[in-house]
Amino acid sequence: MINLFRARNPELRRCSKIGHALHLPSDDVQLAKALSPYPALIQCLRCQDFVNTQLPPPQPLSTFPLIPTGSHGRRHSLIRILAIERIARGIILFAVAGLTLKLSTSSNPVISYLGRLADNSKALASQLGVNSILHQVIVKLQLILHRSPSSYRWLAFFLTVYGLIELLEGLGLWFSKRWAEYLTVVATSLFVPLEIYEIFHHATITKISALIVNIIAIGYLLWKGRLFGLRGGHEKLKEEEYQSTYLFQLLQNSTATSPK
Ligand SMILES: [Zn+2]
Questions:
Q1: What phi, psi does 127 have (nearest 5°)?
Q2: Domain assignment present for 243
Q3: What is the pLDDT of residues 73-109, one digit of tens each?
Q4: 143 and 46 share a domain?
Q5: Domain count of the chain?
Q6: pLDDT band at residue 125, thresholds of 50, 70 and 90?
Q7: Is residue 110 part of a domain?
Q8: How far is the centre of ligand 1, averaged over its atoms, from the C-alpha of 46 (Å)?
Q9: Which domain holds residue 17?
Q10: 118 exposed, middle or buried (CB, 10 Å; 0-12, 13-18, 19+)?
């Protein structure tokens, strides 16, 4: 039974969304016994609940997924949220690029279209809770571009490339790729000077909060993810993540050999 205390357990909440992490070792009798003390009963490696179910097929201990808990588990959840935000931004950019391309062949007064496009992107961005950088980019380009159709094709090309970068970031983050964290930190940092310039030019609460959120995100990814060799780098992160898993605790409590 899930009582109130356990319901607040973030690991249990995650299990309720994506299912329990049930694994049985084929090469460690002692651990197998600890995880499944009775037939049809097995302990989850994430929330530590005992589940009454059909046992999964045994697999070598070295193939067990490492499921970080505590602050390392939270880091993975936050990266997933960031991934969704980046994928949403990528899709919006593709949509705007498509509209912009349409403008290059449109017989209507294109400048009023782009004006509306800028307003819509701002409304859409605020609705989705993403920052208004897309809007700022459109407005800036709207100002500096000529009104010729080729200008709009260049704008569409630029937006597509930007959208691809955002989509790549999002997918990489979703699949926990290390390079995606580097890409996110570098790509987000590149926009910080523009955001600061925008604030000096015309400060709004949205712009200031977007800047603060981005700086916190960069700092968090750098510090907690130990990017660029910070605080021992990737090796240290892997070690700490492994030590935060319930599997590590179980292996520590037994004389079993640890996976790789
Ligand atoms: Zn579970």
A1: -65, -40
A2: no
A3: 889 989 999 999 999 999 999 999 998 888 766 645 5
A4: no
A5: 2
A6: low
A7: yes
A8: 5
A9: 1-58
A10: buried
